[in-house]
Specification:
Elements: E1 7-11, E2 14-18, E3 42-46, E4 50-54
Antiparallel strand pairs: 1-4, 2-3
C-alpha cells in the first residue's frame, strides 16, 4: 500500500471493510486476501451517502480515511 495517493469515493449508506494489509485486488476495500497475514480489515459505517477520501498508503492514523500521511 505504501506511497499511493488516497482514493475519492462516493459511498452509499452502509457497512464497508477497508483493506489494511495491502494485498486486496479491490483496494481500498477488502477482498479477503488478508487471511494469510496478520492484518485484518477495518470495518466502517457510512450513515448517509457522502464523498470520502480513503487511504491507500497504509500510513493514516485515522483509518480508513486519509489524513495526509502519504505526503
Amino acid at each position: 500500500m505504501s506511497g499511493k495517493q488516497p482514493i475519492e469515493k462516493e459511498l452509499e449508506a452502509g457497512t464497508y471493510y477497508w483493506c489494511s494489509c495491502g494485498k486486496s485486488k479491490t483496494a481500498p476495500f477488502c477482498d479477503g486476501a488478508h487471511k494469510a497475514g496478520v492484518k485484518t480489515p477495518v470495518q466502517f459505517e457510512v450513515k448517509e451517502k457522502k464523498k470520502v477520501w480513503l487511504c491507500t498508503c497504509g500510513r493514516t492514523k485515522t483509518p480508513p480515511y486519509c489524513d495526509g500521511a502519504h505526503k
